[in-house]
Every structure is written in structure tokens, then in C-alpha cells.
Write a structure and sequence with these properties.
Distance between the termini: 57 Å
Strand content: 5-15%
Strand order of the largest sheet: 1-7-6-5-4-2-3
Order of helices and strands: HHHEHEHEHEHEHEEHHHHHEHEHEEHEH
Number of strands: 12
Radius of gyration: 22 Å
């Protein structure tokens, strides 16, 4: 049986690691910073990227490598690089193509931390960002692109606006201009959507969320689809000699995955941002049940959204799986197996009534996190997105009364009962 033909559920369990005869059946934790070799030339070849292997965990580690291969397989990519946080994944994905003086076009409906990263930290490094409405037409996207634009960036399912990115539209415009489309696929995960199939070139994840699935491990990953023309003249750092590696040319020496090799060799190496082995081990365990969990997260979220939509104390509900959602048709196109486990709603009475509801929940907890096995709630405007201006909050789809719910995998009856009793106290 050809592994390439395995279904997603099988790949989530089996991909990325093949035990040797008599070796450990489960991916082992290789908790070592360094690795022994019998001759000097072997290590020299590793440093020059002439051979693959492990010599220092800041660049690569067997446990991390197994996770990278699994996620690349799940997304349908050629390679992946795991890093220490989702923020790092998005930062390095951009830094790998843009330098001081360059420009990125980004859909405005991004996670608040990503907006801050782009509009403050990377802006200080000389990379300029233009934020556009995710519902922009092809003409409007094109109008935002400049001669020095190096990529278009979007979030597949926006946190917390839950806008479904029209990947095909954004990819069409990006490719017309010879630049890649980078998509943050954290909320759908590859089980619900594979952006590469719709034209994306690079996919990022905060593995801290659904891939880990149990709120144990911070991490991020960048996945390369393969096949993008990095030698088209817009990305000289890919097609011209890298003097830090004795004149190596990424598009020539690593034709199948130049983006991933450059990201690891330059950014992870120099900035010291690898995922740690134990976090990779825990994340890999989480991914093994990804298919089961995403089915339950999605069905629970849809059922809770339908329940809240009919509740007399609720003023509005936002979930792309609802037939009433303006995102419903697009959600079925890009995520036909389910629309993930996050929904948002507002309580009649506004922010004050919403606070009563949050404080009255018993099963659902108030946590600054999302996308794990336990149901949780959060008020983005005063918590995760509090650094944003009113204008940025509006662009991100965050209203003052918005309560974000990360629907867990508990029994749906218990979840609905908890929200019902809390709402009735408002």
C-alpha cells in the first residue's frame, strides 16, 4: 500500500516516523543538544549543508524532524520547519522573503498578535505592511501590490472574526505578480482544509492550538508546498550565492524545497528559534488524534451555535457552519468536513451582561487560549486584542461585546447546559 494514498486519519497516526527493527515504536524524545560522529569531514559536510542529518538541535533534532515530516505530509507539502511559537512561524515566513525596504499585503482579519507583529515589530525592522479588507476584489488586491511587494498573507479562518479566506482569489492575484501566498491555517488544521490545494504556497500554524490539542506545548511550524518559482528575479536571496554557506544557491542546491532550507539555515540558525524536542514529542502525540478531535470540535461548535442562535439572551452568533452565516457557502467550499471549534456571540445587555455570563460559567473556563480539548471563553477586546486600536479592532472583526468560545470535546449536552444557566443569570 502506497503511503501517498493514505487517508488523513492514517497519516495523522503513521506519517513522519518509521521505526527500525527493534527500535522504539513511538517517536522517542531525543533530549540531546548534540550528536556524535566518527570523523571530522562528516560534520563539515553537515555544516555546509552537503548532507542531511543532525549535529546541533538549534538546527535539527530527530524528534522535531518526525513532527515536521508528519505535518508536511498532512498539508501536502514538500518540507516543514518547526519553531518555538506560532508568532515565530509567521515572523520567519515573512522574514524569509522580505527584508528592510520590502512590502507585504495582508488581509486585515488576522489574529491580534499577528497584527501587532506586522504593524509594530516587523515594521521597525523596515518591512512595510498594507492591510486590506479580506473581502476585497481582485482589483482591490492588485491595487495594494507594489513593485517591492514580496508576498500576500492571510488567515484561513480568522481569529476571532471567523472570516473564511477566499484562498483561490488571493492566490490568483499573488501569482499574477510572481509572489507567494502565505496562509495561516491554525484554526482549520489540515484535517479540515489544505490551502495548498487552492493555490497557497506557504502554510503556517500555531501548533500550540489544535495540532497539540491539549494546551501543553507552545510551538509553530512553516510548511512549503513546493513548485513556486523563487528564481523569477524577485527573490535574489534564493537565487544568488549565500556567502555564509560558501556561495550555496538555494534554488540550485535545494531545488525541491529552497524556502524551507533557507528558513532553517538563516532564520532558525541565527535567531535561535527551534521547537524543543519535548514540545515536538507532545505535539506529535496530539496530532495522532487530530482527525477525531476536529470532528468533535466541529460538531460541538455547530450544535452550540445553533443553540445560542435561538437563546433569548443572545443578540447575535458568528459561526461559519451556520446556514445564516454570510461565510457559510465559502466555508462549505473550503472546509466541507467541518468548520472548526471556535464561535463568537454577543449577549443582550452588551459588555456588562457578557461579563456576568463569563463569570457564571462552570464547565467552560476563562483562559487566554483557544483550541484545546476543554471548552473555554475569552473577551478578545479586553484580552488577546487589547493592544489594537479601535480601527484595528474593527478591521479584525472584534466588537466590544464579542465573546469567543473555544468549544471543546466534552459532551454537547453538558456544554449547552452550562451556557444556558450562565446566560439566564445575565
Amino acid at each position: 500500500m502506497d503511503q501517498k494514498n493514505w487517508k488523513m486519519e492514517t497519516k495523522a497516526v503513521q506519517s513522519g516516523y518509521v521505526p527500525e527493527n527493534g527500535g522504539p515504536r513511538i517517536v522517542p524524545i531525543v533530549q540531546s543538544t548534540t550528536y556524535k560522529y566518527n570523523d571530522a569531514q562528516s560534520v563539515a559536510d553537515l555544516f555546509d549543508l552537503k548532507t542531511s542529518g543532525f549535529f546541533y538541535t538549534r538546527l535539527a533534532n530527530p524528534t522535531v524532524d518526525a513532527l515536521e515530516k508528519k505535518i508536511a505530509d498532512l498539508e501536502g507539502g514538500v518540507a516543514a520547519v518547526a519553531v518555538n511559537a506560532g508568532q515565530t512561524a509567521n515572523a520567519h515566513a515573512v522574514q524569509n522573503v522580505a527584508r528592510c525596504g520590502d512590502h507585504i499585503v495582508a488581509a486585515a482579519s488576522l489574529y491580534g498578535g499577528t497584527v501587532s507583529l506586522f504593524s509594530n515589530t516587523l515594521k521597525k525592522a523596515g518591512i512595510e505592511f498594507t492591510f486590506i479588507d479580506p473581502e476585497s476584489s481582485e482589483e482591490e488586491i492588485q491595487a495594494a501590490i507594489r513593485p517591492n511587494t514580496k508576498a500576500v498573507f492571510g488567515e484561513m479562518l480568522a481569529n476571532p472574526a471567523l472570516i473564511v479566506l477566499d484562498v483561490e482569489k488571493f492566490a490568483k492575484v499573488a501569482h499574477r505578480n510572481g509572489i507567494p501566498l502565505i496562509v495561516d491555517n491554525t484554526f482549520p488544521t489540515p484535517f479540515l482544509c489544505r490551502p495548498f490545494e487552492f493555490g497557497a504556497d506557504i502554510v503556517t500554524h500555531s501548533t500550540t492550538k489544535y495540532l497539540d490539542g491539549h494546551a501543553t506545548s507552545v510551538g509553530g511550524i512553516v510548511v512549503e508546498k513546493g513548485g513556486f518559482d523563487w528564481a523569477n528575479g524577485k527573490f535574489p536571496e534564493f537565487s544568488e550565492p549565500d556567502e555564509s554557506y560558501h556561495g550555496l544557491i538555494y534554488t540550485k542546491n535545494f531545488a525541491s524545497c529552497p524556502f524551507s532550507v533557507k528558513l532553517r539555515a538563516q532564520w532558525v540558525r541565527d535567531m535561535g528559534t527551534p521547537m524543543m524536542p519535548f514540545n515536538a514529542f507532545l505535539t506529535n502525540l496530539g496530532v495522532e488524534t487530530l482527525a477525531l478531535r476536529m470532528e468533535r470540535h466541529s460538531s460541538n461548535a455547530l450544535n452550540l451555535a445553533r443553540f445560542l442562535e435561538k437563546h433569548p439572551k443572545v443578540s447575535w452568533v458568528n459561526y461559519p457552519g451556520l446556514e445564516s452565516s454570510p461565510m457559510h457557502k465559502r466555508a462549505l467550499k473550503y472546509m466541507p468536513k467541518g468548520q472548526s471549534g471556535v464561535l463568537c456571540f454577543g449577549v443582550k445587555g452588551g459588555k456588562e451582561a457578557g461579563e456576568i455570563v463569563m463569570n457564571s460559567l462552570k464547565l467552560a473556563a476563562i483562559v487566554v487560549h483557544v483550541a484545546d480539548a476543554r471548552t473555554s471563553v475569552l473577551h478578545p477586546a479586553s484580552m488577546t486584542h487589547r493592544q489594537l486600536s479601535e480601527e484595528e479592532l474593527k478591521a479584525a472583526g472584534v466588537s466590544p461585546d464579542l465573546i469567543r468560545v473555544s468549544v471543546g470535546i466534552e459532551h454537547i449536552d453538558d456544554i449547552m447546559e452550562d451556557f444556558d444557566q450562565a446566560l439566564n443569570k445575565a
